[in-house]
Amino acid sequence: MASEQAATDAMSDSYRGMSSDNIKGLVLALSSSFFIGASFIVKKKGLKKAGASGVRAGVGGYSYLYEPLWWTGMITMIVGEIANFAAYAFAPAILVTPLGALSIIISAVLAHVILRERLHIFGILGCALCVVGSTTIVLHAPQEREIESVKEVWDLATEPAFVFYAALVIAIVVVLIWHYVPQYGQTHIWFYIGVCSLVGSLSVMSVKALGIALKLTLSGTNQLTYPQTWVFAMIVLSCVLTQMNYLNKALDTFNTAVVSPIYYVMFTSLTIVASVIMFKDWDRQNLTQIVTEMCGFVTILSGTFLLHKTKDMADGCTAARLAKHDNEDSFVEEGIPLKRQDSLRAT
């Protein structure tokens, strides 16, 4: 009888619903996705406009810094990131990060309407799978860990497991930046996005630490006197600048409808891995919840596979049209080519 009662209590704990903090984090994350999804398109328009009169970001140019449209997109993204920042202060990364799937849908639809980057039917299905997988993860996300000081977060960040993960990420990023990006960045999307995603997983952990520090400070427990708070702030700044640089390169070189979902899946996967290692999210969950979350990951990866295959199908269509109309001045864009169409015309 006692064992049955314990099992019942455990089940009721597992499915007791979302806490008030988790709900706050959910609302903030949803609003963040709207702003960030729109910012991709505005920034892309700014990058294309700046590239028409200067050196493109994809080949090392920074003329976009003088383009007001790019700054409009940047401000929109900052608003979204502020909402995202606040969301991490209230909810675990496993809940907040997957909701970035909504920004994929927004950016893909706007790219189709505004940038004329047409989305294949399988690309739409891929986006839907990403959302379904993300929803599955959100519904089974753990409750937020109770933390009373930024020093507790620092202790978690300096445990051997997370130190090893951080060192591994930094080593991979250095190799990518110094060896692979110069050689393959213009032809393989994975290298630009890989740098963004790896660095992003560290930035989210620092953002969460900084958000917790600010939340505690505003509630009356000053955390700004601790040096750890400022260390986390410096990590956030350096990581965000690196992400911005390589995300700009990816957006300027490849189509938004391809960049957004691939960046989402890689960034989400690595962030959740980092969160599981640092905050030990899965220690507060049972096996059923963990397996369900893994199924959500598989669903997201399936969506990414469809999006990538759509790109391959579109590339084949584009190549065939170029061969058929080699002497014509323009051609009709179909599907989601991996590279920008104006880049293909220039080659």
Concise overview:
With about 350 residues, the chain is mainly α.
Overall description:
It is a single chain. With 347 residues, the chain is an all-alpha fold. Helices cover 77% and strands 0% of the residues. The protein is built from 13 helices and no strands. Helix 9 (189-218) crosses helix 11 (256-279). The longest helix has 38 residues, at 287-324. The termini are far apart. The model is unreliable at 6-15, 318-336 and 343-347 (pLDDT under 50).
List the helices and strands and how they pair.
Layout lengths: L1 H13 L5 H34 L14 H23 L2 H4 L4 H15 L5 H19 L10 H8 L2 H25 L4 H30 L8 H27 L2 H24 L7 H38 L16 H6 L1
Helix pairs in contact: 2-3, 2-5, 3-9, 5-6, 5-11, 6-12, 8-9, 9-10, 9-11, 11-12
Q: Could you give a short account of the major beta sheet?
A: none
Oligomerization state: single chain
Return residue spans where pLDDT drops below 50 for at least 5 consecutive residues: 6-15, 318-336, 343-347
The count of helical stretches stands at 13
Order of helices and strands: HHHHHHHHHHHHH
**Structural class category:** mainly alpha
Mean pLDDT: 79
Report how far the terminal alpha carbons are from each other: 75 Å
Radius of gyration from the alpha-carbon trace, in angstroms = 21 Å
Q: Give the total of beta strands.
A: 0
- Strand fraction equals under 5%
Helix fraction, binned, reads over 70%
Shape: globular
